[in-house]
Amino acid sequence: MERKSVPEVSQSVPEKVGPIPQCKTCRFPDHEKYDAECIKGNLSRDDYAKMVGCTAKSISRHLAHIPQIVANSANAEIVTNADNLLDQIVYYEAEARRFKELAESQGDLELALKSVDRALKCLDLFARVRGIIQEQPQVTIINNPEWVELRTLIIGALEPYPEAREAVVHAIHK
Question: Can you tell me the distance from the alpha carbon of 93 to that of 102, in angstroms, rounded to the nearest whole number?
């Protein structure tokens, strides 16, 4: 029985994602280290600017686009890991189907049923990861005593303002 290799979750993240500005400070060697020191307050913007050969205002602009770089990098890692997770789920689902066929061909119905169960679990997990199946609880507040009391107070407070009261009642019933 030939064993296929399992796709692994990648930990590599592209350094730059999307149209991120390349200012003078971004091109400065080891700028990430100095960025961190400046953000922590261990290095002043003036001192950092002297090192880079620019103004403190340039350093401020540089530091302003760091959150975008971090956000894009984190997003790329999440997307990469999610894609790899989906690949693994698809792989194991195919393996479960393969074992089912093998078990059926050998007349082992118990193993075939277990393989079907595993394949179904893989499909269920795939659907959950893709967001096709939602497990979040549905909260209904309409009959909640606190909501009923609050709604009554709001509508009562709007009694002198019939148009506003009607608008709120209409909005609540939507």
Answer: 14
- The arithmetic mean of pLDDT across residues 160-172, rounded, is 90
pLDDT band at 161 (very low <50, low <70, confident <90, very high): very high
Output b/e per residue, 122-160; b: 16+ Cβ within 10 A.
beebbeeeeeeeeeeeeeeeeeeeeeeeebeeeeeebee
pTM for the predicted model, two decimal places: 0.34
Do residues 72 and 20 touch, judged by C-beta distance below 8 A? yes
Do 91 and 119 meet the contact criterion of CB atoms below 8 Å apart? no
Whether the per-residue pLDDT at 13 is higher than 50: the answer is no
Distance CA 38, CA 49 (A): 11
Token representation of residue 63: 């530091």
Which bin fits 18, alpha (ψ -120 to 50), beta or left (φ > 0)? left
